[in-house]
Write a structure and sequence with these properties.
The complex is a heterodimer of chains A (111) and B (117). With 111 residues, chain A is an all-beta fold. Chain A is built from no helices and 9 strands. Chain A has a 5-stranded mixed sheet with strand order 1-9-8-3-4, with no helix packed on it. Chain A has a 4-stranded antiparallel sheet with strand order 2-7-6-5, with no helix packed on it. The termini of chain A are far apart. By secondary structure, chain B is mainly beta. Chain B is built from no helices and 13 strands. In chain B, the strands form 3 sheets. In chain B, strands 2, 4, 5, 6, 9, 12 and 13 form a 7-stranded mixed sheet that branches. The radius of gyration of chain B is 14 Å and the shape is globular. Classes of the chains: A mainly beta (111), B mainly beta (117). Chains A and B meet through strand 3, strand 4 and strand 8 of A and strand 5, strand 11 and strand 12 of B.
């Protein structure tokens, strides 16, 4: 399985943007980049995903490098509720039957 | 509310016992995934079923088994329980495969917390 590398932890101030990086140098052409987050005492929730182009939704933006070997999840204005563990996952769009989570990045948001 | 229902929410049992965890996926979702999350550990993928068939196995012990029934609900059976099996067990569902592409985000339930004493 293609693997991802994320920092163990990051800190942000409330109402400031947060850029969460993810390296995936062994990504293949059919791998989609998925982001999930897990709030304390909850199950993970989907944040965003993309293949090649940058993506935006109501929760976040996903910036994908041109060579696709890295990506960045952008929270435009962090709130206290955004404190969570963020997981970057590669998923083969054509032939993948599992979804494996790494250690993720624990984001702390300071008031 | 993700639409995925897991029961029971909490379960306390003794070593050596057997338990069954149940998952009802979102309406229309054909894929069910099971994960284990121990204290301060990441999410470990256990197994994936699609429309009743096993599609992928992860780090699932031989003492554990799962199945997906015709109505698409799934059960995870844990037997000969050990202290180390104490964990949160999450079920997730997704649409599955459409047009040959593995699509869809995963929707997670709230988990079943198993405590083995």
């Amino acid at each position: 399985d293609a693997k991802t590398t994320q920092p163990n932890s990051m800190e942000s101030n409330e109402e400031e943007p947060v850029h969460l990086p993810c390296n995936h140098s062994t990504i293949s052409g059919t791998d989609y980049i998925h982001w999930y987050r897990q709030l304390p005492s909850q199950g993970p929730e989907y944040v965003i995903h993309g293949l090649t182009s940058n993506v935006n939704n109501r929760m976040a933006s996903l910036a994908i490098a041109e060579d696709r070997k890295s990506s960045t999840l952008i929270l435009h204005r962090a709130t206290l509720r955004d404190a969570a563990v963020y997981y970057c996952i590669l998923r083969d769009g054509g032939n993948n039957n599992d979804m494996r989570f790494g250690a993720g990045t624990r984001l702390t948001v300071k008031p | 509310d993700s639409g995925v229902t897991q029961t029971p929410k909490h379960l306390i049992t003794a070593t050596g016992q057997r338990v069954t965890l149940r998952c009802s996926p979102r309406s229309g979702d054909l894929s069910v995934y099971w994960y284990q999350q121990s204290l301060d550990q990441g999410l470990q993928f256990l197994i994936h079923y699609y429309n009743g068939e096993e599609r992928a196995k992860g780090n699932i012990l031989e003492r554990f088994s799962a199945q997906q029934f015709p109505d698409l609900h799934s059960e995870l059976n844990l037997s000969s329980l050990e202290l180390g099996d104490s964990a949160l067990y999450f079920c997730a569902s997704s649409v599955g495969i459409s047009g040959g592409v593995n699509t869809g985000e995963l929707f997670f339930g709230e988990g079943s917390r198993l405590t083995v004493l």
